[in-house]
Design goal:
Elements lengths: L1 E5 L3 H13 L3 E6 L2 H11 L3 E4 L10 H12 L5 E5 L4 H9 L5 E5 L6 H12 L3 E3 L1 H11 L1 H4 L3 H11 L4 H8 L3 H15 L8 H18 L5
Parallel strand pairs: 1-2, 1-3, 3-4, 4-5, 5-6
Helix pairs in contact: 2-3, 3-4, 4-11, 6-11, 8-10, 9-10
């Protein structure tokens, strides 16, 4: 499985190269800036990418903007954002793009290598891998649509966004599968979304709605 990494920190990029290599990934290229990342993606057409949000020269949002451009050029290109920061506007745009294969993890909260590898494989397969803190920040800024959800429904939504299926959510929350199914039905009903059991697509549908709600109210800025 070919990977292109966008990371300007040499120690971190080298560490990722070693870890992923041991896990059976092939590192096609490591880019230290957004322009080099886009060039590498066009050349190698990787199976998955790992992208930092802040890259040279300004260290603001070049990485995630480059990820958005890469997915425009190659629809469905799997992107796992790995950063210290939640860039809310562009995170919402990235998560709302069609085709699946999107993740957003926070560097300081990745505590296990095997969990990171699993997340990368899930994204490469077209799934979703989200840090709960990222979802929490997006949900908080989405405004009134989420206010209609109960506390338990918000918990279920956050776990859905991490890529968990109904059974895994039930185990995490120590409830029955039927209870999870009911909560998910309530979530989609309250958000005005069609009910679907198609894994990551339901998460992307919710995040698309949140992105649209934020843009309508102006809460995402930009």
């Amino acid at each position: 499985m070919r990977v292109v990494i966008a990371e300007d920190n040499v120690l971190l990029s080298t560490g990722l190269e070693l870890l992923l290599g041991r896990a059976g990934f092939h590192i096609a290229a490591i880019a230290g800036d957004a322009a080099s990342f886009l060039t590498a993606v066009r050349e190698h057409r990787p199976d998955v990418t790992v992208v930092d949000v802040r890259l040279p020269p300004s260290f603001r949002d070049e990485g995630i903007r480059a990820a958005l451009q890469a997915r425009q050029e190659q629809p469905g290109l799997p992107v796992l954002v790995l950063s210290q920061y939640v860039e809310q506007q562009y995170a919402a745009e990235l998560l709302a793009t069609a085709g699946g294969g999107v993740g957003y993890l926070l560097k300081d909260r990745v505590s296990r290598v095997d969990a990171f590898i699993d997340a990368l494989r899930r994204v490469a397969a077209g799934g979703t891998a989200m840090d709960p803190e990222v979802i929490a920040q997006l949900v908080q800024r989405a405004g009134d649509p989420i206010a209609a959800l109960t506390g338990r429904e918000r918990e279920v939504l956050a776990l859905m966004a991490q890529g968990l299926d109904n059974n895994a959510i039930a185990q995490q929350l120590t409830v029955t599968d039927n209870a999870v199914h009911k909560h998910i039905g309530n979530i989609f009903a309250k958000l005005g979304l069609a009910v679907t059991d198609s894994g990551h697509r339901r998460v992307l549908a919710v995040l698309t709605y949140l992105n649209g709600a934020g843009r309508t109210s102006g809460q995402f800025g930009g």
